[in-house]
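Appendix B. One record, verbatim.
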Amino acid sequence: MKNIIKKSIIILSIIGLCSCNDFLKETSQDEVIPSTIEDLDQLLAYEGYPRYERSVTSVRYGSSERNRAAWMERFGSDENWLATSQTELASIGFHGTGAFCTDTYEKIQAHNSAHPDAPMTLAPSFGFLSKFKSTNGYAYPGGKSENILGLVLNEEAWMKFCKEYVEEALAPYKGDANVLGFFSDNEINFSTQGSNILDQFLKITDNDDLARKTADAFMEEKGADKVTAALNTEFAGRLAEIYYKGVREAIDAFDPGMMYLGTRLHGTPKYMKNVVEACGKYCDIVSINYYSRWSPELDTYVQDWATWAGKPFLVTEFYTKGTEDSDLNNLSGAGFSVPRQEDRAYAYQHFTLGLLEAKNCVGWHWFKYQDDDGNDNTGKPANKGVYDNYYQMYPYLSKFMQEVNYNVYNLIDFFDN
């Protein structure tokens, strides 16, 4: 942790010698979509103004009694809640919202209409796979929810569903210049550390199950009698190809100007070459939920993502939890635990400075707006938020967030030179 603090102090001290007060306007009424890594400057440029993405996820009501009481006392209305949140988040360099703003997207759009000079960008998230299953009355392949991706092997039905669902689900966002893009799913199980998707399909006992038949045919095609990591990655990539192609063709037909932000790859999938290649082929940005690492893997996978995808990446989840100065049990969530709020602040600066070194990164979404509380995560609340459960920002964390967020363009120049 001392090395993290030292790195942050040295770099930010250097940047502090630059002009930090002449911040450039961050807004746009045009949509610019990157097609390659070389188009990264376009994503940042928009109408000539920089736009390096910094947002928070899960902007929504807290579920506990103290959440509700604090919300009423502090805000009293949706209009005041979002106007205040926008002002406070912008004051520390966050200008938009990410995934999981359940029941809030329409309210954010209303805020943006009422306050065109102080908008919050949106990146709505959906559950295409689960909707596909319910719409078509499918059972899980092999009766297991972890095999849901196998449903896309009903390829004609998948393509038809994507076209129809995109027209329904994305209709409220069509033509909205404040919509950064959308996520079609979250953390799809292309494989996990302990379970290969090819193995999962081969273990299905019903030989007539489409997922089982496809896995059997793949093994026969490869002349293989044992699953290897390479075979599993190739098989997962074929599934990813079908999945992403369906969504891509649907959004191109409906609103070619809307960016497709992918499915927030996590865990093992973000390290699977064929999956990332398919994501890059059909998505405008590769979204990564980045956990289990204190620092971005600049010399390895970050470079691989550029090569494999040929598109920039966006970190769509990361956070740390304070254990010693929080009244929450912190028994849920993938983020690292640290002792105190100061350590959350240091970890934020350390991780984001690493992202700013990466030439193929276009920003990050902090998970999340407010701490979990009440019934969140089946009664396992955790210290994840920029705000506590009384809708007050954590002072130390927010100050350190501001220091990096306000200096991203100077920092990018610093690292590039």
